[in-house]
Amino acid sequence: MGLYATTTRRRIAAVFVLLGLIALPWGMRLIGQEFYVSFASRVLIMALAATSLNLVIGFGGMVSFGHAAFFGAGAYCVAVLAESGVTSAWLAWPAATGVAAVLAVLVGAISLRTRGVYFIMITLAFAQMVFYLVVSLKTWGGDDGLPLLQRSAFGSLDLKDDSTFYFVVLAILAFVLFMLDRIAHSRFGRVIQSIRENEVRMEALGYPVFSFKLVCFSLGGALAGLAGALMANQAGLASPNLLHWMQSGILMVMIVIGGVGSVFGGVVGAVLLLVCEEAFVEITPHWQIGLGLLLLAVVLWAPLGIAGLFGWGRNRE
Amino acid sequence: MSEGLDLLLDVRGVSKHFGGVYALNNASLSVVRGEVHALIGPNGAGKTTLIHVLSGALPCNGGRVVFDGNDLERRPMHERVTLGLARSYQITNIFTRLTVLDNVAMAVQSRVRDWGSSFSFWKPFSLDSAIIGEAHALLAQVSLSGMANRLAGQLSHGEQRSLEVALALATKPKLLLLDEPMAGMGPEESERMVGLIEHLAQQVTILLVEHDMDAVFRLADRISVLVGGTVIASGSPEAIRGDAEVRRAYLGDEVA
Ligand SMILES: Nc1ncnc2c1ncn2[C@@H]1O[C@H](COP(=O)(O)OP(=O)(O)OP(=O)(O)O)[C@@H](O)[C@H]1O
Ligand SMILES: [Mg+2]
Q1: Chain A CA closest to residue B172
Q2: Which atom of ligand 1 is nearest to the CA of B58?
Q3: pTM (two decimals)
Q4: Considering CB atoms only, which of A4, A186, A215 is closest to B102?
Q5: What is the location of CATH 3.40.50.300 in chain B?
Q6: Cβ of B229 below 6 Å from ligand 1
Q7: Nearest CA in chain A to B82
Q8: H/E/C letters for each residue in chain A?
Q9: CA B45 to ligand 1: nearest atom
Q10: Which atom of ligand 1 is nearest to the CA of B47?
């Protein structure tokens, strides 16, 4: 039993969770809380963004502090395209994914020449550059962000309907998780996880480590762009907040709590964090102290995150 | 000196300094295809530094290295491995949190160049029976079959040393650079390692860095002596044993 991601009962559990999520809109309608369907979409989109970061940090071992740049790039791409009349999701969402991927290749090609703290700092610096650039552009709304007047058109599906939008997001997330699970067990997945374990040895075994890391980093960036495209649709706005370094930090906290390097870590973390926020923010504005304590507890006693506690993470020794 | 011989590795006047310290100073040696070439020298002579320079882990400050007809200058480490140059580490360098089998499988996979190679994203690795089969065969060769599913970090020191060699071997090198494979081993384990190297010598050329003189004189076809970053002598074991300068500089009482 090594530290590669594993497949066990986890997949069965995932199917049950998926069924529950499919039933969620009807459940909410039953208890008259339809507002929560839109909230649930937001949670799933953040789960997708966190999952994309988990690919980079958890599987590839590259502690990127600039993931918000790719998330935000996807959102702005969709909003800018909508402004110029391109509203088809079939065009706008792949475009957002592609733009984020290209940005990630550029950032990665430079940042991945550094290691450790330098890598953290250089990815942060790039993301902040993107943030200030976008905020300074008046045509893109500056501090206010760029509104998306209507949700993307997705064939005959009406995304303006919150339930329909929710199902589309859920389908995309489920597909990405399925892909990630496949990747984790593929040759490529094992290579990047081994690079995370011992980079020098991998190079000495003949692996072009840099190329593998760049592909992994860019794949993560591309998926973050897709999440950003969905987020712009959910919020009706490409907000500069999506590009802010705090967004990168939140995504990081999510995967640490959920489970670094486990397929469902990003989902578990995003759900936990956002549901707690929703539940406690009414009660006390100091709920984040509780979050801090939770983070501390996870780091100290459950380094594989909540997913790890349930045997959903990487194998224990 | 070595004209007419089939040179696999030719090191010409290589220098490497760390700040003011010359770890290698105009070092030259050549390894003939098929031989076991031992590199001996006192602590701090620069043996490990030479292995680092040859494998591409460290850039050198001058000189040339030609391997199998290729100038290695500016070639990254992974390319050198593809050319057939593999190394083991003096300080064990394995994947401690992966299983022993996964360690070796990862090494075998590095040279798989079939469809998709290591950029295959889809097919589950557990179906790669060819790679896994080869990994098992390698483990048998280094007597680690019983440990396949243990975490590498849980192995004894001697077993980890064997795994270290298996990783290098798995890349199917033309030249195997072994940096003190017996380091820290007990007599029984050392004996087994000597046996393994003897066996490997039939398949692959070996450059062996080793302090254990009994092992060196048993295994080596030729020996080079590195002192203070310079190769002061190269030749057959008998010639080295009889070389006055070598005796003075290094061997001393050990063979007297
Ligand atoms: N990274 C480094 N920075 C500075 N000095 C170094 C470095 N690596 C090695 N040296 C110095 O270079 C010299 C050669 O070291 P090297 O490790 O190559 O010796 P060695 O022959 O392998 O010794 P040993 O038999 O103890 O393994 C030593 O004086 C060492 O202190
Ligand atoms: Mg040494």
Answers
A1: A205
A2: 1
A3: 0.91
A4: A4
A5: 1-84+173-256
A6: no
A7: A206
A8: CCCCECCCCHHHHHHHHHHHHHHHHHHHHHCCCCHHHHHHHHHHHHHHHHHHHHHHHHHCCCCCCCHHHHHHHHHHHHHHHHHCCCCEHHHHHHHHHHHHHHHHHHHHHHHCCCCHHHHHHHHHHHHHHHHHHHHHCHHHCHHHCEECCCCCEECCECCCCHHHHHHHHHHHHHHHHHHHHHHHHEHHHHHHHHHHHCHHHHHHCCCCHHHHHHHHHHHHHHHHHHHHHHHHHHHCEECHHHHCHHHHHHHHHHHHHHCCCCCCHHHHHHHHHHHHHHHHCCCCCCHHHHHHHHHHHHHHHCCCHHHHHCCCCECCC
A9: 21
A10: 21
Q: How far is the CA of B22 from the centre of ligand 1 (A)?
A: 9
Q: How many CB atoms lie under 10 A from the CB of residue A122?
A: 19
The verdict on the CB of residue B125 being under 6 Å from ligand 1 is: no
Q: Which residue has its alpha carbon closest to ligand 1 atom 29? A: B44
Ligand 1: does its nearest atom lie under 6 Å from the Cβ of B18? Answer: yes
Select from A65, A61, A112 the least CA-distant residue to A250.
A65
pLDDT tens, position by position, for chain B (256 residues)? 445 678 999 999 999 999 989 999 999 999 999 999 999 999 999 999 999 999 999 999 999 999 999 999 889 999 999 999 999 999 999 999 999 999 999 999 998 755 456 677 767 766 678 889 999 999 999 999 999 999 999 999 999 999 999 999 999 999 999 999 998 888 999 999 999 999 999 999 999 999 988 999 999 999 999 999 999 999 999 999 888 888 877 765 454 3
For residue B17, is it left (φ>0), alpha (ψ between -120 and 50) or beta? beta
Torsion sign across C-alpha atoms A294, A299, A305, A310 = negative
Residues of B in contact with A3 (CB under 8 A): 97-98
- CB proximity A206 to B under 8 Å: yes
Ligand nearest to the CA of B23: 1
Nearest to B125 among A187, A201, A202 (CB): A187
Helix (H), strand (E), coil (C) string for B57-106:
CCCCCEEEEEECCEECCCCCHHHHHHHCEEECCCCCCCCCCCEHHHHHHH
Verify whether the Cβ–Cβ distance B87 to A204 is below 8 Å.
yes
* Contact criterion met (CB below 8 Å) for B95 and A202: no
CB B161 within 8 A of CB B189: yes
- Nearest-10 Cα torsion for A104, A110, A115, A119: -60
Which atom of ligand 1 is nearest to B49's Cα?
18
Q: Does the beta-carbon distance from A204 to B77 stay under 8 Å?
A: yes
Q: Cα distance from A190 to chain B (closest Cα, Å)?
A: 8
Look up the CATH architecture of domain B1-84+173-256: 3-Layer(aba) Sandwich (3.40)
What gap in Å lies between CA B80 and CA B51, rounded to an integer? 13
Tell me whether strands B222-227 and B36-40 are parallel, antiparallel or unpaired. parallel
The answer to whether the Cβ–Cβ distance between B149 and A1 falls below 8 Å is: yes
Inter-chain residue contact A194 with B106, CB threshold 8 Å: yes
